[in-house]
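User: Show me a protein chain along with its predicted structure.
Assistant: Here is one chain, sequence first, then structure tokens.
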Amino acid sequence: MYTERTYRGWSGLDAAARFNVTLGESDLDIQCGEDRRAAALEKLAALRGDLERHIARDPVYRTSLVPVRVPPDAPEVVRAMADAASLWNVGPMAAVAGAIAQLVGEAIAEPGERVIVENGGDIYARAPGEIRCAVYAGERSPFRDRLVIAVDARDGVGVCTSSGVVGPSLSFGKADAVVVIARSAAVADAAATAIANRIRTPADVAPVVEESSGGPGLRALVACCGDRLALWGELELVENERKRS
């Protein structure tokens, strides 16, 4: 079921070009140097085709909640998802949104160009400096409209979110939001799912973040549940300019 992505109105006002590409369950909001809608749609269709053909051969890949082995010659998107899932002991579909965002972004961006691809709240970005991301923790969270993080995107970065109370993603926890920053958006996506699964009460936030810090592929981590918030790694909290205005 489609959910209106009202948060997209909060960003991209200074983008040279911004456009939307949708196919099946994939709904990408893209910012880059010029409108490359056709190239983005072509890449998205190729990735989805590779994934769908693999699932037709191995249906467990779609439904498994634990890592699934794939052959060495599996398509790039299939391997990226499986590798990320293996690092964080989740099913490969936990990494699908991040993997697709990054592979589309890398395919359409010119060298040195700023590009941001958002896929259902999971982001791949590459920029000359930092990007700023607002963390949405739900209408009832005391951190609503308060959390904005600055992340270095010079080498490309994945910023992915999981929640047990916001959005349609499967989670076994009750975290309001878990945001993971990693070089690989697939890894960030898988890690966000794995970490959010472990936060069931506000008291879990600090110990789970501490235990997860330095996990495979991670650069930074933000987690909140109820009135508890914990942060770790290469990020900076900044003022929410939208709230101030």
